[in-house]
Amino acid sequence: MRNLHSFLVASVAAALLLCAGIGNARSPVEATHLQGPRQVDLVIALDVSTSMNGLIASAKQRLWDVVNELGRAQPQPELRVAIITYGNPSYGEQSGYVRIDQPFTSDLDAVNQTLFSFGTNGGDEYVARAVNTAVSDLDWSGSADALRIVFVAGNEGAEQDPLLSVQGSMAVAAGKGIVVNTIYCGTDNDGDAAGWRRVASLTNGLYAAIDQNAAAVANIATPMDDELIALNDELNETYIAYGADGIASRQNQIEQDQNAGAMSSAAAASRAITKAGALYDSSNWDVVGAIEEGAEIEEFEVEDLPAELQAMDTDERKEYVAEQSAKRERLRAEIAQLDQERRDFIAEERAKTAKDADGLDEVLQEGIRTLAEDKGFTFD
Question: How far apart are CA 253 and CA 376, in angstroms?
Fold first, then answer.
């Protein structure tokens, strides 16, 4: 990929990290769920000043493609994502016009909901402040074999913060084993590009220049999309929300399906693939997901279950949940097969079209892949 590897320093800091838990109780499967094999903490920091509508649209459109790339890694990652935005004057001067929109979470529906919650507004873009907020104010993991990465994207000078130097902010990041990668929304020949390169080099991170609008417009429709969307509808029937939070989470799941569908059929198909993959975690609100993570049906309070399960005895509940789990597993297999066919189709179509610049999704996907491989992950 153009520009991405040419500035990659040969060795990424040995102590990359990952957070072991969200901090909130995840009854009844907290202990089981937090014993994942390898963890990845990913921060996406986006410039939301007025000129960045294309960047925001790209993030909304291609979140699921990025997640699916990481979902193909082995050993299986346990992913948490945080979203930070900067450059909006409404955030206030004291914050450096930076805001944590979504703290670290494994709830990918919450991440997508966050991306759809904000727009753009003119302001000062302080990259050093955005990185400092990510490094200092987020609950990073201390796990020695984890991957901790920040991608910060913007289109103004990266070294214009009047209070914090990028050298100071990056030194703190490097000291915590966090790799900061920069994405300049412009051409590699622009005067500001050199500053973005320097920022990335301070933590042995990656640098790339992108067309911020590319991912928003470069959709490739495939013959598999409609079938994937239909299978997603069937997959939704297997979720059994429990507790008050479960009802809200189930509703948000449906809303994020609708958000993806409103963007494009490609985004909806990609989201369906995510939901069928191992990185989509519903165990804190869905009975089937909780059972898959090691919970027992007897652990659920009867009043927390939906009415149809409350009317059953324990054996009937077990049988019903087992049926939904088997159906979900069958759908996952069908979606996985279509995913492979779809990726092959897209690869062939992209090979036919030459383009001048990468988009946000390509930079994130290949950047995550490069950093993960450097940390010992492999990809199919």
Answer: 33
Length of the chain as a residue count: 380
**CA of residue 275 relative to chain centroid, distance:** 13
The model's pLDDT over 19-30, given as tens digits with 9 standing for 90+, comes to 323 233 334 444
Chain centroid offset of residue 255 CA: 17
Q: How far is CA 129 from CA 53, 89, 98, 139, 170, in A?
A: 21, 14, 7, 17, 10
Q: What are the sequence ranges of the domains in the chain?
A: 30-218+355-379, 225-351
CATH topology of domain 30-218+355-379: Rossmann fold (3.40.50)
pLDDT tens across 304-363, in order? 999 999 999 999 999 999 999 999 999 999 999 999 999 999 889 888 876 655 677 778
DSSP 303-325: GGS-HHHHTS-HHHHHHHHHHHH
The closest of 27, 23, 47, 65 to 343, measured between CA atoms, is 65
User: The pTM is what?
Assistant: 0.84
The helix/strand/coil state of 100 is strand
Question: For the chain, where are the E strands, in sequence order?
Answer: 38-47, 73-74, 77-86, 98-105, 147-154, 179-185, 207-210, 378-379
